């Protein structure tokens, strides 16, 4: 009754799929045979809709940029020649003129922030580190070959014992 109707209109098990494959091959129904055969494949890439030629990611990005009429992508961090612009923005920000910064950024295509790093860390972080951690960080940097990498325990003890821990730490900016 209802079970027979469902079984006649849809595939329920592998036995029914095999019988339908045999009937399709016997009656010359090639499209139905290929459809049923694709259901047996374990690999999804064997199916026809997945055999399209894939485009390179850069080509896709360029196509999307032209389709949505987007401008050329901007860098996230300021380049070396944009530091003067960043300095002007700092003055404008202190004066409370944020609209001027937004307008200049939109018209000039400048990056929103400048990278203020010393040895891979922000300058404020380096200034707030204790002396021992600063020395360890400097020694871990491979590019700096001019710094004496041999620090004996006596020298380290002398440096640490001469350091005045009673003074409050402060951050100073030099322009």
Automatic annotation (TrEMBL):
Q: Which domain of life is it from?
A: Bacteria
The record, for Pfam families, names:
VC2046
Report the protein name in the record: QueD like 2
